[in-house]
Amino acid sequence: MALKVYWTPRAKKGYDKIIEYLSKRWTEREVTNFVQETFNFLEQLSIYPELLVKSSKKNIYRGPINKYTIITYRLKPQSGEIQILNIRGSRQKPSGTLT
User: Domain with 49 in it: what CATH number?
Assistant: First the structure.
């Protein structure tokens, strides 16, 4: 059974920053590819929620969507949910500024 995926405001903001970055520096094709790649990843994640590496914190997982994007999420098996906590470019500092 696939779990529902929810985004936190922080994750939405991080995703928007990536889209903005790609829009400024790349073509519409790359933006579209990234959006599709993210959608496909989240679809797989909803089916296989333990897809990425579990952190030392309870039910928190972190890892790459691709070699340029890192995602952090919380698995909530009792409620059947995956909560996307953060998403950022791997070339960004954790605060979200570009390097």
Answer: 3.30.2310.20
Query: Domain containing 39: what range?
Result: 4-89
Number of domains in the chain: 1
pLDDT digit string (tens) for 20-41?
999 999 999 999 999 999 999 9
If phi > 0 it is left, if psi is from -120 to 50 it is alpha, else beta; for residue 85 that is alpha
Encoded tokens for 16: 């928007």
- pTM of the predicted model, to two decimals? 0.86
CB distance 74 to 85 below 8 Å: yes
Continuous H helices in 1-99: 9-25, 28-47
SS3 66: strand
Asked if residue 97 has pLDDT above 90, the reply is: no
From CA 57, how far away is CA 48, in angstroms rounded?
A: 19
